[in-house]
């Protein structure tokens, strides 16, 4: 397993990490993802550790805390061998302080997560959404106190816009608070919006990307093909409305390119899609999920080899879309290459 620095921090994380959204699954979304109990989760953790995958990502909102509880049980007795990443800020109840990133909410959320995980520290806490109602200084000062108390090692965010990340980093520098070193983002061959603003920001500010849904919300599994109906057992029948939309033509264009690369390499479509992400700037770790050992082992096969430059170019071309304003005009101007980050 390849290990990479997480942003500008000294922490090294595996190129692949495991997403525990399938642990203890319940409800219309997480129940469709999977519902591994502690015994099943422990076996998946065993396989991950054997392969060098030691970062496990979850969130308090995943099945209302059940994912954290199952993950905690699965890593019991080997806490020092794993890195635990969790997230908070999304609603965990109907009360006025059951959502957001206020001091009250963050302190309680961290204490609750520690109990569910059965640990006394969290390696990486990420804010699951930007809280526009709470002053950023309040958020950062609270995270600073939690880091100083030894309850958090590193902090990051998820699904923030560029200005929200940059303003937070600027205030962290001004007051000497911990900087965000990670940004958990949606990024895939059918969802490359991350490249327009967040990737250049990550390169400039030392914020590493933890990629969620690298298979485009389940669309790049190799089971969806041009001219064929959605497989009867596909989870997309129940979950498509929860995730990022994808235009059919883009999807089929990418699937065609993935299948061509799969034939050339002898790898699977998901392995090709994940390996492409691992070649992208700022990507520290790609979060893979699995309900079964077979799915996990297949996803683990995305590392240990690399696509050729020609194969990457073909995938780039198949997945390319016109960037939103104000990014697209400058791509047409001579000399833009020297102003942009590599490989964007």
TrEMBL record:
Domain NADP-dependent oxidoreductase positions: 16-318
GO molecular function per UniProt: oxidoreductase activity
UniProt keyword annotations, A-Z: Oxidoreductase
InterPro entries for the chain: AKR, AKR_Detox_Biosynth, NAD(P)_OxRdtase_dom_sf, NADP_OxRdtase_dom
GO CC terms in record: cytosol
Any matching Pfam family: Aldo_ket_red
PANTHER family: NADH-SPECIFIC METHYLGLYOXAL REDUCTASE-RELATED, OXIDOREDUCTASE
Stated name of the protein: Predicted oxidoreductase
Species annotation: Mesorhizobium muleiense
